Amino acid sequence: xxxxxxxxxxxxxxxxxxxxxxxxxxxxxxxxxxxxxxxxxxxxxxxxxxxxxxxxxxxxxxxxxxxxxxxxxxxxxxxxxxxxxxxxxxxxxxxxxxxxxxxxxxxxxxxxxxxxxxxxxxxxxxxxxxxxxxxxxxxxx
Length: 141
Description:
Blueprint: H1 5-11, E1 23-27, E2 31-37, H2 57-73, E3 82-93, E4 102-113, E5 116-125, E6 128-140
Antiparallel strand pairs: 1-2, 2-4, 3-6, 4-5, 5-6
């Protein structure tokens, strides 16, 4: 099942320039795969870096968090709630992400306890790992 941008906007509170998920390709109960098309028109490229544009690693992690957020906030019991970062562990950046790349982002929920969830996430470009990490979230109202 795919999820288009309209359903993503319904699930997430983020808007331009902070909405970093373009489409969901696959979704199951605890796993989601989505894409972010990276273009030279992204506002962060104006300063990171003008002569050598590279997507900031923290924004790759934010895109992964939003990917997980789409899955969690699409559930009826979480409709209208917010998801907040509670932590990031084992974050690694392996490949620069540049204009023209398509980030393929996967997030798998590995632990849930009350309003806290732990996700294993990774972002790839052309089948090569760009970034990965363990993300912890708190689901709030």
